[in-house]
């Protein structure tokens, strides 16, 4: 026989023992891993239960606190803190110079409402500050005639958007105190975005979707011009202008999709 005891031990007995040890190690590793996973799952569950319970306790405590202080006359909502209604003839906010921005609504993403084109037409109709159509047309047609007043400015903005990739407004950023820094560009930006959005909505109503897209693209470019500004109010206005144009997109999807 060629097989000696040493070679048999090396070839058969030792490998069998090592194989058994490897199996045991694998089982131990799997058991350890399973226990670890179960432990992590249990810990995550405890954390979730803790936060759920704390949120519930916090909500109850807040509601109790709010009811207690409301009984003492404190106010906690914007509605309760708003000024009381007053007669129109005594309302300074409805002075003709201040009233126009409140005359019509372009709809709201949050409230799920659409633009009131009839109210927009009524605002522009007979308003000598805007061009008037010679013949009565649809609300969208009359709105576009009125807003053609801004055609030259809108073309200038489109040309600039195509050739000027950056935007830095001439703001005195080093002015002290910083809360006194003037931001006169924000009102203009929001007004321009309102115009581009209304023009887009009117064009969509007339089935001129490509022209509407150009208006919306210009509006988004106007909003994007505020992206690098370091002041919080700039970004709040940017969010508002983005919402204005997203509303125009929504109008197209809801009315014409």
How would you describe what is shown here?
There is one protein chain. By secondary structure, the protein is an all-alpha fold. The protein has helices spanning 5-70, 78-81, 117-124, 139-147, 151-163, 185-205, 209-224, 232-256. Helix 4 packs antiparallel against helix 6 (185-205) and helix 6 (185-205) runs parallel beside helix 8.
Q: Percent helix among the residues? A: 55-70%
List the total number of helices: 8
Distance between the termini: 90 Å
Structural domain tally:
2
Compact description:
With 257 residues, the protein is an all-alpha fold. Helices cover 63% and strands 0% of the residues. It has two domains: 1-82; 88-256, no CATH class.
Features:
mainly alpha; 2 domains; extended
Task: Detail the topology: elements first, then pairings.
Layout: H1 5-70, H2 78-81, H3 117-124, H4 139-147, H5 151-163, H6 185-205, H7 209-224, H8 232-256
